[in-house]
Design goal:
CATH class of the largest domain: Mainly Beta
Order of helices and strands: HEEEEEH
CATH architecture of the largest domain: Ribbon
Helix content: 25-40%
Number of strands: 5
Strand order of the largest sheet: 3-4-5
Radius of gyration: 29 Å
Largest sheet: 3 strands, antiparallel
Distance between the termini: 115 Å
Oligomer: single chain
Number of helices: 2
Length: about 110
Amino acid sequence: MPQGLGRTLSFGQEGEMWYLRSMRYLLPLLLIASQTSAEGKTVDCYCTDRSGSRVELGQTICMFVDGKSFMAQCQMSLNNPMWRRLQDGCLSSDATPTEPSLLDRLEALKPA
């Protein structure tokens, strides 16, 4: 047998190193390619809310799931848009004002 032909590359240590080196270069190309359609157009990624309305990446909304409310942000994970829970509860405008409103102050100025 000629020298060098009897040696086959198994998926042992050398094969794993080759695989890791090639994936280091191939993975970014796959990620870039996956965001374009077959026609070469960039695919617009976004999330949707309960009503089906479009929510852009990075936007934060209040979500209600199984009777619980929480703040969630539209993010990408493994090349898919997804909701990431940020905190329990939602920001609310139900806070009581610390100062009287303009209407309350005007009411106080009226003669009795």
